[in-house]
Design a protein that fits this description.
single chain, about 300 residues, mainly alpha, 2 domains, globular, disordered N terminus, transmembrane
Length: about 300
């Protein structure tokens, strides 16, 4: 019992510290926007020139692209036209940043955000994307200047992947144009914000209420929490008349989470309404109506703009 009390006190203290700083969740949103708008497209452009991505799959999956680059650099020290002994460190740190964002490692984000951004800057230089590197440097500088203020860094321009131009393969009628790409990127950033600031916290609160053994950290991993929720629904709610509908809501929310973290921009553009509605419905299902209303506000604003 004493261990559980100590653990709960540690969790409460951790969340209070997050609230006092009023930074970490907003900081995660800024990092995700930066990764999505600047970092991912430039990795795709670099790897497409080396024929190391499937050019017919228009997906900006930072995880897979960094995985390829780490392996290639390990096998060939001259993989990049400009290279140095810090390449492996910068690539691995870039991957750590992506994992921290995807799996809600907020202690890591709070402690290492500068290292993450600096690693992205160096990797962008490695892939011959100086303009994008400069944009990420501007984000870093802006965050440093506003380190004691609420974060208001906005992504103002995007790095475009080459598949938008038809430079690599001919554009198909079903392909997105530049305007649609910008729209999809903004939607992904908004989905991440709702997942991070609203749905993730709701899922974590439910986990802490339902589990006798709690984790003593600030991790809020929507992927794990959604899998846990699916297991709970399978095991405990099959007799509910709304079981199938509830299950579909959880599955759609999980799909939305996966699409944004694996850079599936076309699928996000096509299905973003479903993902937002699933986030809202899931919060209502978990009796978190105020949170559902906050997500609905974001959804309604996006719908009015589009």
């Amino acid at each position: 019992m004493a261990n559980n009390r100590n653990c709960n006190r540690a969790i409460s203290k951790g969340f209070n510290q997050l609230k006092k700083k009023d930074r970490t969740l907003d900081l995660a949103c800024v990092l995700f926007a930066t990764m999505t708008a600047y970092f991912g497209p430039c990795l795709w452009n670099f790897l497409s020139r080396k024929n190391l991505v499937d050019k017919t799959v228009k997906q900006l999956d930072v995880y897979n692209m960094l995985k390829v680059m780490i392996a290639e650099r390990k096998n060939d020290p001259n993989f990049f036209s400009i290279s140095g002994p810090c390449d492996p460190y910068n690539l691995e740190t870039s991957m750590a940043a992506r994992h921290a964002l995807a799996h809600g490692y907020y202690d890591n984000i709070s402690n290492h955000w500068m290292s993450y951004l600096m690693a992205w800057i160096e990797v962008l230089r490695l892939v011959n994307a100086p303009n994008a590197a400069a944009k990420v440097k501007n984000v870093l500088d802006e965050l440093i200047l506003k380190k004691n203020n609420p974060l208001e860094v906005q992504v103002t321009s995007l790095s475009a992947p080459r598949f938008l131009t038809g430079e690599i393969i001919p554009q198909l009628p079903s392909d997105m144009n530049n305007t649609e790409y910008i729209k999809a990127t903004k939607i992904m950033v908004k989905l991440y914000r709702c997942l991070t600031k609203y749905l993730g916290l709701t899922l974590r609160d439910r986990y802490l209420r339902n589990q006798s053994k709690s984790r003593c950290d600030s991790e809020i991993d929507p992927q794990t929490l959604l899998f846990d929720l699916l297991d709970e629904w399978h095991n405990n709610h099959q007799t509910n008349p709304t079981y199938q509908a509830d299950l579909a809501t959880i599955q759609t929310a999980k799909e939305g989470r996966n699409k944004i973290f694996h850079g599936e921009i076309l699928m996000t553009l096509q299905n973003w309404n479903f993902y937002f509605v699933s986030f809202i419905d899931l919060c209502n299902l978990l009796h978190a109506r105020p949170t559902a209303e906050k997500i609905a506000e974001v959804h309604n604003q996006l719908a009015s703009e589009n």
